[in-house]
Amino acid sequence: MPQTQGNGFVTSNALPLVFLEGVDIVNDGNLILSDVSFKVSRGDLVYLVGKVGSGKSSILKTLDAELPLAKGKARVGDYDLATIKSRQIPFLRRNLGVVFQDFQLLTDRTVEDNLMFVLNATGWNDDKKMRERCSQVLDMVDLKTKAHKMPHQLSGGEQQRVAIARALLNNPDVVLADEPTGNLDAETADGIMTLMMKIHHQYRPAIIIVTHNRTIIDRYPGRVLLCSEGRLKEVTEEISPTGASEDMPD
After folding, report:
1. β-strand 71-76 against 18-27: which pairing, if any?
2. Distance of alpha carbon 202 from the chain centroid
3. Which residues contact 234 (CB under 8 A, 6 or more apart)?
4. First-to-last C-alpha distance (Å) of the chain
5. Pick from 134, 144, 22, 153: which is nearest to 75 by CA?
6. Three-state secondary structure along 95-155?
7. Tell me: the pLDDT tens digits for 135-190?
8. What is the largest CA-CA distance in the chain?
9. Burial class (CB in 10 A: 0-12, 13-18, 19+), 230
10. Domain segments of the chain: what residues?
């Protein structure tokens, strides 16, 4: 990606960007998943699948330090999640791009101002460079002409493209996407996945996607991690042409 003010994780390319070993995922005092272990390296595409409430989103919230580490070893980039200080969390998140199902755009601000808000919050202070970066990421998602539109003036697919642009502002090493196509029709969802795969192939971030959509996994194959019965396991069986597997959730 074009150079930004974010320095990125300095972890050696030989080491995984995400490393979890024997981790318990706890949300609001409830044990959601136990003994979670997996690694994600630069350029990996990983899907998290499972039934509603099985812990998929809680894994993402643990990776960005929204949920504290309850047990085990975990590292994201250069940050040890067991010992990370509250003052370090914003620096961790600068190198994580997060895409939400419900977009989470600020409805009272233009597209550009939504992006400027994030740049301000992550330490940028040169207005000219900030606006140049906004223009760059909007161009990456084919929305350069929509910078001065309000979110309600955009379609659902366009709003999700803005959310992806926002996630890319600081040139993240890891992109976390929580059901990025969940609120979109099939055609629009395919366009969003095509965009994400273009970014993946061109810039090689690690991408972790929570999804229920088997068709997406079939069309854009990657590693599949299944949350089921309080455990996480990697699905190694071949996925059928319809995207189904005995280990995949209904």
Report:
1. antiparallel
2. 16
3. 38, 223, 224, 225, 226
4. 37
5. 22
6. CEEEECCCCCCCCCCCHHHHHHHHHHHCCCCCHHHHHHHHHHHHHHCCCHHHCCCCHHHCC
7. 999 999 999 999 999 999 999 999 999 999 999 999 999 999 999 988 888 899 99
8. 53
9. middle
10. 105-171
